[in-house]
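JOB MANIFEST
job_type = single_chain_structure
chain_count = 1
residues = 277
[input]
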Amino acid sequence: MPSGYEGESGLARRSSAPDFIEALARGLDVIKAFEPHHPSMTLSALATRANLARPTTHRILLTLAELGYVRATDFGFSLTPKVLELSLAFVQSAGLWDAARPHMERLVAQTNESTSIVQLDGCDIVYVARVAVPKVVALNVHIGTRFPALQTALGQVILADLQPDELEQTLAQPSRSGVTPRWLPDSTERDEALKQVREQGWALADGWLAMGIRSVAVPLRGASGRVIAAMNVNTNAAETPVEKLLGEYLPLLRETADLISHELRLVQSMPIVVTGS
């Protein structure tokens, strides 16, 4: 294929690599174009957000609908729960959910509060595992939900493990969460907060992301010792005082995270067996 080739509708290819599949990249662009606060979007809106021509976007949507990832609505198109299979495939392949689930369920039984595990994606955290209890909270959370990392206890635990240049590069990226946080620190305040998290080994966020959300988080570490994810206990600030969160729930959370980290290290240290010729 000649250099500078522009595919259909004059859309420039984003890579000159001969094995790069532009159609697949455009399909992912359409999936990512759906906004958190606009679950159903018109063809025109999706084409604009994905930076694609309307006919191209329409064909991609019809393909995704045929595969079960998108459905047509009275207001346009919306994603279906089948999209969660894409993230679940990652979680399950990493062994994270299998290792974490029984420990998370035990922690929820002990605290009667929700617990979640997240990983870092750009400057956002993305929820990859969750065991919830039915309580009224300000933000709806499910697998795949993303929030700005800096304003969450979960995100701070991961950010605190980054090297200074890696931290700056991470936070320089734009958030794709669609959430405007309440706490907007300058670099000095940010660095002081992360230093404290690094020293104490846990993070507390009290209304930084949204009013009434109070959370404590600790790291999950892989075989290398680096933080690969974070785990929390999330509470309603009107129901759970900080003293109870730190005095009763944090020790249980740390114990649970240690058990999960240990099992993850065992999984990661197992040799990979290749079968076949």
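[summary]
The radius of gyration is 21 Å.
The domain at 85-269 is CATH 3.30.450.40 (Beta-Lactamase).
exit_status = 0
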